[in-house]
Each structure stands twice: as C-alpha cells, then as structure tokens.
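Example 3.2
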Amino acid sequence: MFWRTYVAHITARLAASIAFVVALALPSAFAQQQSQRIVGTIEGVDGPTLVVKMHEGGEVKVALIENVSVFGVVSATLADITPGAFIGVGAVPQSDGSQRAIQVTIFADVQRGLGEGHRP
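Structure, written as tokens:
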C-alpha cells in the first residue's frame, strides 16, 4: 500500500513538473507564431529588414524571413476583375439582411487559400 502511494505521489509530481515546463514554453512558441497586420509605406530596406512608416504614425522595422512574399496595393476598376479572379469583398450588413460591398480586393493567384474566411 505504501509503495502504491509513493509511486502515485512521484507520478503526480512528475506530471505537475511537465505541465509547468509546457506552460512556460507555450507562450514563447505562440509569440513566435503570431502575425500582426502592418499597414504603411515602405520607407527603406536594410538587408533582410523593411522600414515601414505606419499610416497611423510611427515607424516599425520588419524582419523578413528567407522566402518572404510581398504584395502591394494599387487602384483598380471593375474591368480589372476577370472570370476566375481571386477576390475578397468587404461589406456592411443592410437592414434587409443583405450586404453592401464597400471594398473589393483582387488578390494574386498565389494567395488563393491563404487566410480565407469571414471576419468581423
């Protein structure tokens, strides 16, 4: 009986220790995986670092990964939307339950499947 209690106590302490180490490691792992949307103008490039002037003010330096993809924003018209184009639509709800488009974004085909979905 004593032996079972001792083993259960050691097992519980080991499990608690492992859980504590995992709890400490998870926030740093998630911090490395999180992304942040940056909207601004590229002011300069210094090796693998972009210097971006934020639209809301201030400046931020962005470290680029080795195989980074960069996409820009340019004005377009409805004539630029072709059959099969990958688009995103920003809309606001109307009182009749429909949506009214306020923005249409034409994405590069290589962006197909990245970050798709409905967001507030």
